[in-house]
Specification:
single chain, 54 residues, alpha+beta, elongated
């Protein structure tokens, strides 16, 4: 679980790459993983702003 100081938490899940059809597999390089993490944090920040302004 990844926690950030915005009063929210992120729970992650995944799939076994061996069970994903080859045509749908993605290469999760360090750059891609960091991009996903950054996107998650930005989305959480936006959600927290909306929640705090409601």
């Amino acid at each position: 679980m990844l926690s950030i100081p915005y009063g929210v938490a992120v729970d992650t899940n995944g799939t076994d790459p061996a069970r994903v059809p080859e045509r749908r597999r993605q290469d999760f390089s360090p750059t891609r993983c960091l991009t996903e993490i950054r996107s998650t944090i930005r989305g959480m920040r936006s959600l927290a702003e909306v929640r705090n302004n409601a």
